[in-house]
Amino acid sequence: MGDRKQAGDEEFRAFVAGRWPRLMRTAFLLTGEQHAAEDLVQSTLEKAYVAWRRVGSADDPEAYVRRVMINTHARRHRRKLREFLAPRDDSGIAREVPDSGDHISRAEDRGLLLQALAQLPPRQRQAVVLRYWEDLTETQAAEAMGCSVGAVKSNTAKGIAKLRAIPELADTVMYGGRK
Fold first, then answer.
1. pTM for the complete prediction?
2. Which of 39, 82, 145, 165 has its Cα between 20 and 30 A from that of 28?
């Protein structure tokens, strides 16, 4: 029994070590604050550790943990879902080693982009973060958000439309191949 627990602990440690930067990035984009993101990841990983036998044996443990993160975030902010604040600083993301395919990490004015993202309603923000930062399919995003694929499509489209309407972003970010 002790060997099984020790193997599970090692598997969990390896999972955390491999996923930490991505979990922190997602949490930061959801919360808009470095300390809130750290708290969210910590709470998420606590829940994942307690249920690691179930999580580790899931088809996609990362998707399972992502769903836990989104549910944890939604519960924490259920009363204040419309009160997302603009990120105070993006130092947490700056320390992260960006994925080579993460075009957002190369944006000239990351702060402006993060502030614009923070202005989106919560569900639109979640959909945009999951679809474009996490590069999830609509089905994966729907599973993570606990909603239908249609709701993901709708929230993503509305969120992108709102981002496109911000004049300051027009000079910084390319949309659909156009500047």
1. 0.62
2. 165
